[in-house]
Amino acid sequence: MTPAGSLLEARALHKAYGPTPALDGADFAIHPGEVVAVMGPSGSGKSTLLHCLAGIIRPDSGSVRYGTHTLTGLSDARCSALRRTDFGFVFQFGQLVPELTCLENVALPLRLNGTKRKDAERQARDWLARLEVDGVAAKRPGEISGGQGQRVAVARALATRPRVIFADEPTGALDSLNGERVLTLLTDAARDTDAAVVLVTHESRVAAYADREIVVRDGIARETAGAA
Amino acid sequence: MSIDTTTTGGGLRGWARDLGMGVRFAVGGGREGWIRTLLTALGVGLGVLLLLGAASIPTMMETRTQRGQARLPMEMESEALAPSAATLVEAEADTEFRGDPVRGKLLRPDGDQAPTPPGVSALPGPGEMVVSPALRELLGSPEGRLLRERLHFKDVGTITQPGLIGPGELLYYAGSATLTTDDGGWRIARFGTLVKSDPLDPLLLTLLIVGCVVLLMPVALFIATAVRFGGERRDRRLAALRLIGADARATRRMAAGEALFGAVCGLLVGAGLFVVARQFVGDVTVWDINAFPSDVTPVPGLAALVLLAVPVSAIGVTLFALRRVSIEPLGVARDSAGRRRRLWWRLPFPVAGLALMLLNGRVSGRDAEVNPYLVAGGAALLLVGVTLLLPWAVDAAVARFRGGPVPWQLAVRRLQLSGGAAARAVSGITVAVAGAIALQLFFSAIQGDFMKITGQDQSRAQLRTMLPSHDIGAIRKMISEFHATEGVRGVIASIGSSARRPGPLRKGEEFRPGTLVSVGDCPSLSELAHTGPCKDGDVFVVKDSTGTVDEDDITEVARPGATVDFAGDDGRSGPPPHPRLWTIPMSARTIEARKDPTGQAVFGLMATPGSLDLKLLERPTARAMVKIDPRVPDAVEHVRNTAARIDPQTRVFTLQNTARDKQFTSLRTGLLAAATAMLALIAASMLVTMLEQLRERRRLLSVLVAFGTRRATLAWSVLWQTAVPVALGLALAVAGGAGLGLALLRMAGKTAFDWSVVWPLTAAGGALVLVVTLLSLPPLWRLMRPDGLRTE
C-alpha cells in the first residue's frame, strides 16, 4: 500500500534480536495529520516497529521512507538530525531529565536544534500553557505528579512542531482520567499542527483516539479498519 | 485484632534477619542486581587490593632487611682471623651498569669448609661466578654486551631467593685464586651480621606517618563510594518492601545487608586480585623497588583489620547515606532536596586537624619527639575536612551557575540536584592531590637537611677511581689504559704516597712529621694545584690554602733543598731500616693547592715523572679522574670495563654535585612508589564510579538519543559534570594541601614554601580525570542505544 501523499511509509520491515524475531513483516503508510494506533499484546513487537519507523534502530531488512528520505539509508547523524527537527517522542515513563525544570525539559529539543535559550523557553512556556501545566514550569520532574509529567512530555514532543509524533504507551503509567486528558491534548495539538501521530498501545480505550489501527501480533503488522 | 510487628524488632536477631534478607535481595536481584554487585565488588576490591598491599609493607621491609643482613660478611674488626679450612677471603667488587647497581663479591676459600653466602649452594671456583637470575638475563641479552665484557667469569650457578633482596637484583659472586687480605680482601668465617639500623629522623618519621595517612585516605573514600553504587534502584526496591509491610528501620538494615554482600564480594575480589597480583609482583619494578611474591604477605593483624573494617564500614556508610532518605511505601523521598549543606559543622574538622598537628610542636632536631597519634590524627582530620568541605563547595558554587549551552546546562543542573554524588566521585582525587601537595611541600622544604653539597665538580671530570694495587707497573698500565678507552677525553691521574722527615723520632714525637707526595704529568697536576707554567722535571711544594692541615708539617718536611724519606713508619721508635731518601730540588716552586674535581685539596709535594724515580715511593696508590665524551654512548660503561679489566676490585664512582641522605632517599622512593600505585587505583576506581553512574542513567540516555541529541552534546555534558567538581576539588586540594604542608613546615621549623611543587600535582590530578573521562566515552556511546527504551 503506497498511497499518494503519504508522510511515512514502511515496507517489508524485519527485525530480530538474536534468534528471536521481533518484527516479521510490516507494510503501511501514514499520512500528515493522521493518528495511527499500533496495537498488540505485550512483546508483540509494537515498540520495535515504532523504533524502526523513527529511525532509532535499523531494521534487518525492509525500508522506511519519510517524505523524500529513506531512513534506513541515512547515517546515524542524519537520522539524529531528523529526529531533532521533524519527530517528537512521548514515552511511558523516565523520559524527562530529572535535573532540569519542566520548562527546561520542554525547551531542550528546541535548544538542541539551535534555538536561543530565551526564545526556546518562551516557546516552551506557551506549550506548557497549552497542555495546561504552566504552573509546574519551575518545578523538577520529581516534584510533579505522573499526569503532569506526561503532559510536560507531550509539550516537549510538540515544542519543535514535529511532523510526526511517536508515542509509546504514553498513558501506560496514568489513571484513566489523566490518561484520557493527556490523549485528548496530544491528539488535538497534533491535529492543530497537522502532525501525524504513531500511538503505540495495548489498550483499545487508547486506540479509540486513532483514525486507524495497525495490529502487531508475533511481529507481523496488519492494518485493520479505523475507529475514530 | 492484633498487629504483627515482628519486622520492627531490633536487637541482634532483628539485625541478623534483616541483613540476611538484604543479602538475599542482592543475590536474587537478577542480572541487574548482579551487575550492581559486580561493580561494587570491583570498586571495593580495588581498595582492598591496595589495603592488603599496604598491610604487606612491614613484612616486605623486614624480609628484605633480613636477607640483606644475612649475606653481609661477618668481618672481624678487632683482630685478624687466622686462615683455616672454614674461612674465606672476600672483597667487594660492586659495579654499576647504565645507572643500575650491580653488586658483586670476589671470594677465595681458605679450605673446603669455607662458608657459602645465602642462596648459593657451592662456592664458585677461580674464574667462575654464580649470578642472580636477573643478572643472568641481563648478561644474556644484547643490552648486556658491555657488562659481559666486564663480568667475564664463567656462569656456574644461580643465587636463589635467600640470597637476594629482590628478584630484580643484579648480584654475583665470583671466585678468585689470588685474592688476599693484603690487596683489599677480608677474611671471614661466616656470612650474616646484625646491623642495628639508625632510628628514623623525627622529620622523616613525621613524613612517614603523614604519607601513610595520605595514601590510605583515598582508599577508604573509594571503598565508601563503591558500597553506595546502585543506591537509587535499591531505594525503589526498598519502597516496594515498605508496601508489603517492612518498617523503616528494617528497610535500612536490609539496605545495609545488600551493601554488606557487595563489600564481602569486594573482599573476595580484592583478596583474589591480591593473590593474582602477588604472583606477578616480581616482574614489576616501581622506583627501583621490587619484591618476591612471598615477601608480599600481609601482617596477620592488619589483614584481619581490613577483613573486619571493610564490611563494618559498608554497613556504617549505608546507614549514614540513608539518614536523610525517607523510604515510604509509595516511593522514596530525599529530604536533602532544598536543604542547603551547612558549613558550620564541616569547618571544625580541618581546623581541628591543623591544631592537632601543631600541638605536637617542632620535630626538627634528632632528639625531637614525634607523637604519631597527634600527627596521624591531625593529618587524617584535615584531609577528612577537605572531603567534607567538597560537597558544600560544589553546592555553593553550582548554585550560582545559570544559562550556558545545553551540555553545560545538563551538567550544571545535575550537579545542582545531586552535587553530593559528584563530589563523592572526585573526593578521592581531591584528598590524594591535597596529600601529595603537602608531602611534596614538606619534601621540598626539608630536602636541604638531607642533602649535602659534595663539592664535586662534574664539569671537570665525571668519574673517579682508585686502584687497590700498589704496584707501580700496574698503576702506569691503568693510567695508559684509561687514556686509550673509548669515549675518554682525558685522565687526571696521580700516583700518591707519603714523604716523611728523615732520621729518628725527636723528643715528644710519636711519629715522624710527614706530608703527601703526588706524582703526575703537568696537565694532571694543574687540576690539583695552581701550578702555573709546568714542564716535565718540575717539582712543587703545595701549600694548603683551605686551612684543613697543619702548615707547619708541610713546611718542616717539604722545603726546596730538603731531603725526605718515602719509607713509612712501621710503628717502632727507631728510623726505618731502609730509608728511601730523596732531595727536593732547590728549583721547586711553592704554590697554592686547588680543589680537584672530587672536591678535595691535595697538598704537600707534587712532582712530575721526570723529577722523581717512582720506584722510591713506598706502597704507592693511584687516583684517576676521568673526563668522558658525552657524545659517545656508554662511555661510562667502557671506563668501568677498563677498570674491571685492570683489577676486578677497582671501584669506579660517578661524581655528583650533591648527595642525599639514604633514609631520606629510600623514604621518598617508597612514598613515590606507593603514590604511583594509589594514582593507578584512583583512576580505576573513578572509571568504575563513572560507569556505574552512567549505567543508572541508561534509560534517560536512550530517551535523549531518541529525540536526536548529539553524541557530542552528551559527551560534553559528562565532561562538564566531572570537570566542575574536579576543578573545585583541585582548588580545595591546593588549599588543603597548602594548609597541611604549612603545618608540616611549621613543625619542621621551615618557612620556605615552594609553590612550584603545587602546580604539577594539580595538573596531574586534572589530567587523570581527563583520561578517565575519555575512557568512559566508549561505554557512554554503548549506553546511547535504544535498548534502554525497551520496557518489556
Short description:
Chain A has helices spanning 46-53, 76-85, 102-112, 117-130, 146-159, 176-192, 204-207, and strands spanning 8-17, 20-24, 28-30, 35-39, 61-66, 69-70, 87-90, 164-168, 196-201, 212-217, 220-224. Chain A has 228 residues and is of the alpha/beta class.
Task: List the defining traits of the structure above.
heterodimer; A: alpha/beta; Rossmann fold; 6-stranded mixed beta sheet; 34% helix; B: 792 residues; alpha+beta; 8-stranded mixed beta sheet; 19 helices; 49% helix; disordered N terminus
The CATH architecture designation of the largest domain in chain A is: 3-Layer(aba) Sandwich
Largest interface: A-B, 37 and 26 residues
Average pLDDT reading of chain A: 86
Average pLDDT reading of chain B = 79
Number of structural units classed as domains of chain A = 2
Number of domains of chain B: 3
Hey, roughly how much beta strand do the residues of chain B contain? 5-15%
What does this 3D model show about the protein?
The complex is a heterodimer of chains A (228) and B (792). The model of chain A has no long low-confidence stretch (mean pLDDT 86). Chain A folds into two domains: 1-86 and 162-228, P-loop containing nucleotide triphosphate hydrolases (Rossmann fold); 100-161, no CATH class. Chain A has 228 residues and is α/β, with parallel strands linked by helices. The longest helix of chain A has 17 residues, at 176-192. A six-stranded mixed sheet of chain A has the order 7-8-9-4-10-11, sandwiched between helices. In chain A, strands 1, 2, 3, 5 and 6 form a five-stranded antiparallel sheet that branches. Chain A is 34% helix and 25% strand. The model of chain B is unreliable at 1-8 (pLDDT under 50). Chain B has three domains: 6-63 and 200-450 and 662-789, no CATH class; 73-191, no CATH class; 463-656, no CATH class. In chain B, helix 2 (30-70) runs antiparallel to helix 8 (300-321) and helix 5 crosses helix 10. In chain B, strands 1, 2, 3, 4, 5, 6, 7 and 8 form an eight-stranded mixed sheet that branches. Chain B has an eight-stranded mixed sheet with strand order 18-15-19-14-13-20-12-21. At the A-B interface, helix 2, strand 7 and helix 3 of A face helix 11 and helix 17 of B.
